[in-house]
Amino acid sequence: MKHVGFSTGAISLGDFEQAIRLLHDLPGDAIELSALRVNEIGPLIAALPHLDLCRYEHISIHLPSNFSADEEAAIAELLWGLPRSWLLILHPDVIHDFSIWRRFAGRVAIENMDRRKSRGRTAEELDRCFTQLPEARLCFDIGHARQFDPSMAEAYLILSQFSDRLAQVHVSEVDSQSRHAVITYAAELAFREVAHMIPMVTPLILESRVLPEQIPSEMRRAFNLFRPSIFAT
Amino acid sequence: MINEQWKNIHIARRNSAEMLDKLTKAVAHLTASDTSIVVSGSLARFELTSGSDIDWSMLLDGSSDPRHYQVFQEIATAVGGLAAKDVGREGTFGSLVSSHDLINYIGGEGDTNSNTTRRNLLLLESCSVGSDEAYHRVKKNLLQRYLAEDSGIWRKEVSNKLPHFLLNDLARYWRTMTVDYAYKERTRGGRGVPLRNLKLGMSRKLIYVAGLLACYQCHLAFNDEERNAFYAEKNVPGLVALMHKTLQQTPLEITACILRRFPIHESASLQLFEAYDLFLGLLLDEGIRAHLEKLHSDHSEGDPIFMRAKKIRRQFQQAISEIFLTESSELGRFTIRYGVF
């Protein structure tokens, strides 16, 4: 399936096991295990030995979008023993101590942020973060980039400047309230402007909040946008 | 970037930086991610003199909220306390402006004189105070429209990569300013006409020059190989990013940055900046400025101060003609081919 899949948070917010079950019989060889709230990360790590993830060629974990300085080291400790190939998606605005994440090197991918945040929205702001984490990679959220700048000029700058760090792409509509939603036609038009800058091998993780019956069509939409030649065959 | 010898330019830049600092302290807290305070005119050009007004507007780019009007009134009070004069009487400034009209009404019936003016000044001479998110977002969306809908620049067989849609709108705006000059003379009488005449031939003309040069950047920013690679695909976001970066500079900075790459025009470029420095020197002198503001067009021809100003304006025009109306470089060739007819 060329590394396309869903975030468990998009399918069933706060219930990764239910999301994995719903995705079981559907196409997709990539998955993001979402632990957006700090109290979700412990149970997720504890459950990993019992989860059936063998069909997935690309696995990432979305770390909590908010945690205190006291919780930071403990979260990092929980993650250290995970398989090295799993990508850890981290929001730049939650980092309190960069040295904690520096030792993860390329296992951590910094995600560009939406309009609500004060850090990590632009190429310039991301650059400050990568200066602190020189080996970290990029999780490019195309919906966030479009919400921040619908002209897609900022998306272009991020993809040009950090092409060598690009490790994963988050795909969804991000509305004016910063909610992830089903990709609209207007978003499709904007995404097409920079789709050619995303290599075919880069894993795509859909974050669109969909009903189970919408999963195949949303996946097809992403394929049309970012893997057009594969979809054609 | 701009030669230290032009002391008036430097004084005006320092004045502007100080005023923007005061404005930021006074109104930055009234902005948000979907509202920006946009400043135009001499302050945005970094050419503030003691007699300058502060042209500003509150730009909305997000959810409509009736309370925006109260915010707007707070801003008006705060800016009024800092400005030397009230904003212009045409209603173009000191107002609430929606991004929708700026972006969607380019040409056609909906493109009023005020809309044309606000849109062109947003690109050519503007800066923001406080939160700049809405300001940059709207500016980039506006550029996106001009560049994505340009019928020539993306065509393979077109070798001169110039944004015709944008360039034509800037040229139209320059002509609009010249027509409005005549309109103001008719509606306001002859008092102050000599000063407006001087501004038209200097600062208004400068923004057209800077606009043309910014358009030429679409071609000049690349060597042949880079240009072929860049334009091989319809890379609108890349071009928006380039133009946005260029237009973040003041008109004098854009002019200096691009002209310095043409040693063939060094002498004319120096003449252009020297004339502009002398022009700002006149406006910085409170006595001269007050004299020109009161001077009636009927008495201007024999007026020694106006004669001095006219000489400066002529020097500026000669420099522009030498750079832009001769075929000795791409600047002249582009202007003759695309900026005139």
Describe what this molecule looks like in 3D:
The complex is a heterodimer of chains A (233) and B (341). In chain A, 40% of the residues lie in helices and 17% in strands. With 233 residues, chain A is of the alpha/beta class. Chain A has a single domain (4-232), classed as Alpha-Beta Barrel (TIM Barrel), CATH 3.20.20. The relative contact order of chain B is 0.12. Classes of the chains: A alpha/beta (233), B mainly alpha (341).
Radius of gyration of chain A, in Å, reads: 16 Å
Given the helix and strand composition of chain B, which structural class is it? mainly alpha
**Helical stretch count of chain A?**
11
Give the fraction of residues assigned to helices of chain B.
Answer: 55-70%
Query: How would you classify the helix and strand content of chain A by structural class?
Result: alpha/beta
Assembly context of the chains: heterodimer
Profile the largest sheet of chain B.
4 strands, mixed
CATH superfamily assignment of chain A?
Divalent-metal-dependent TIM barrel enzymes
Distance between the termini of chain B: 33 Å
- Uncertain residue ranges of chain B: none
Bin the strand percentage of chain B: 5-15%
Would you tell me which CATH topology of chain A applies? TIM Barrel
